[in-house]
Amino acid sequence: MRLACRQIRAWRKAGLVVPVMGVNISPVQFGHPDFLTTFRRILEEEQVEAAAFDVEITETSLMRSGEELASLLGEIKRLGARLSIDDFGTGYSSLIYLRRFQIDKLKIDQGFVRNMESDSANASLCQAIIDIGRSLAIPVIAEGVETQGQFDMLRELGCSEAQGYLLARPEAPEAIAARLAKA
Length: 183
What we know:
The protein is an alpha/beta fold. The protein has helices at about 1-15, 25-30, 35-45, 65-80, 95-100, 110-115, 120-135, 150-155, 175-180; strands spanning about 20-25, 55-60, 80-90, 105-110, 140, 160. The protein contains nine helices and six strands, in the order αβααβαβαβααβαβα.
C-alpha cells in the first residue's frame, strides 16, 4: 500500500493523470485487527486520498462475523476507496454481501476463465457470475484472459472488462508512466 501511494505521488508529480489503482489485500492483512488503522495511517503519511484506490479483497476475506466485517468495509467505503471482490466464485460468501457492502466490482477467478473454451461448466460459471453482476449493476472483470477465444467468449457472455496477458503484460512503473503520458 505504501509503495502504491509513493508511485501515485511520483506519477502525479510528473504531471500524469493517474487512474484508480487496484491494490490486492491478502486475507491475512485484511483479517489483521489493525488493518483499518494501518490503512488510514499509510494514506495520511503518504498524503494520498483513499479515492485513488480500488481495494481488492478475496472472496474468502468476507468470511468474518457480520457486524465486524460490515464496519470495516463501511469505513473503507466512507474513506472513499472502491471495493472489489477478487477471485469471485471460489469462496462461500453470501450473495447478500454484494449489496450490503456496496461492492464496486466482481473479478471472476482466472481458474474459471482458463478452461472456459473447452469446459462448458466453467463457461456456465462465468455466465452466472456475469449475470449476478449485471442484475445487481456491479461491473464484472474477468481475470487471466490469455487467448482471443476467451476474450471473445467473455464479450459474448456480456463481461464488461478483462485483464490478462492477452491485453497487457505486467510493466515497470516507467513503462506505465509512458502510457499515461500518451493518454
